[in-house]
Here is the input.
Amino acid sequence: MKKTFGFTLAEVLITLGIIGVVAALTMPTFTTKTTTAKIGPQLAKAVSMFEQANKALLADYESDSLQGVVLSDGTRLLKNGKTYMTALESHLNGTQSGNYSFYAADGTFYSTSTKTFPSTTDVCLKDTGSNATSPNKCVIASSFYIDINGYNKSPNKWGRDRFRFKLFDDGTLAPWGAVGNLPRGDSDNKWTEKCKSNEVPADYQYCAGSIFDNGLTVQYK
Here is the structure.
């Protein structure tokens, strides 16, 4: 008699069951790692897009400082957050969603809690302290926020899709908590203390600094 080799139905079902269990255990980790790997590049792109928009805005008014821009009606660009965000519309190719917030065309959400920006250099906050890398720059918004997937999309949590920066008068951003780019030069307020690598952060707001200081990779949990 000819002997036939193969698997029984029971063996096939057991094998498929094992594969299903392994997939169920590994897929969440794989998905998390994939999502995490995208955060740094997405955030860098959002920052670059915003800074380029400010550069174009300054070129329009032939100014090297946002504080020096005076609009056609005689008011200053930084009269308030709404005026500033409105001026960025054409350069970010998006829509203003509120007085102090803006949606770019790709869904990135930019916002600030600053209702009134400093309008003259003598009232701006200098980037000071022993760790400040830009001592001659004025900080026109110490709290500027970027949500890389949009305010109306989850998870809307610090360090996962929402990140904090400070905005300078030349239109550039500095990640909150980055070493050498600390808020007001506070030496203890940096990601190495607040958002340590391989640990759950004490304050996720400082994790923007961790990402930029670690080659656009997420090192925290």
The chain has a mean pLDDT of 80. Strands lie at 95-98, 101-103, 109-112, 125-126, 138-147, 162-168, 173-175. DSSP finds five helices and seven strands in the chain. The longest strand covers residues 138-147.
